[in-house]
Write a structure and sequence with these properties.
The structure is a single chain. With about 170 residues, the chain is an all-alpha fold. The chain has helices at about 1-55, 65-85, 85-135, 140-150. It folds into 2 domains: about 1-85; about 90-135. It has 4 helices and no strands. The radius of gyration is 52 Å and the shape is rod-shaped.
Length: about 170
């Protein structure tokens, strides 16, 4: 009986080795398949990156745009926008502030021009009023008006004015 058990043990040991070999082959095949899938994914990403770079670059070399390349680019674009949403929001806010500031400056300049025109108008009116008042207040004009009205009590002075010298 000891012989039967040893024969069975050797057979069992061989079967275990075969199973282990099959499992290691399956694991190796799975690893190879994963590596191949990773390479394909990396190649797709690199193709997308190449396409995006070729569209953005200033080089004269332009890869041929095919429907597959454009589809790959469009698949990559939403992910890029999602990863850069904060920067895009900051840029949009800057643009909004720039435009708003431009309009506000334009409105202020128009208001300033309007106020300057109004100031000129008031200056000219003031100069006109001062000259009219000066003309009406001259001694000769006052005397002439009084003569026309018949008031003869006011006569010009026959004595020259005195100059008072003050010593300091």
């Amino acid at each position: 009986m000891a012989e039967i058990e040893t024969d069975n043990f050797e057979e069992l040991q061989e079967e275990v080795q075969e199973v282990q070999e099959q499992e290691t082959q399956e694991v190796e095949e799975a690893q190879e398949q994963e590596v191949q899938e990773a390479e394909v994914a990396q190649e797709q990403v690199s193709n997308k990156e190449k396409l995006m770079r070729s569209l953005v670059s200033d080089d004269d070399e332009v890869d041929e745009l095919t429907a597959a390349n454009i589809r790959q680019m469009l698949d990559a674009a939403p992910r890029w926008f999602l990863s850069q949403w904060k920067m895009l929001l900051l840029v949009l806010a800057g643009i909004f502030l720039y435009i708003t500031n431009g309009y506000q400056a334009q409105v202020e300049m128009m208001k300033e021009n309007e106020l300057e025109a109004e100031l000129k108008d008031w200056r000219y009116r003031s100069i006109t009023r001062v000259s009219e008042l000066t003309q009406l207040c001259r001694q000769s004009q006052l005397e002439q008006k009084l003569r026309e009205q018949g008031d003869s009590t006011l006569t010009p002075s026959k004595v020259a004015p005195f100059i008072i010298n003050v010593k300091e």
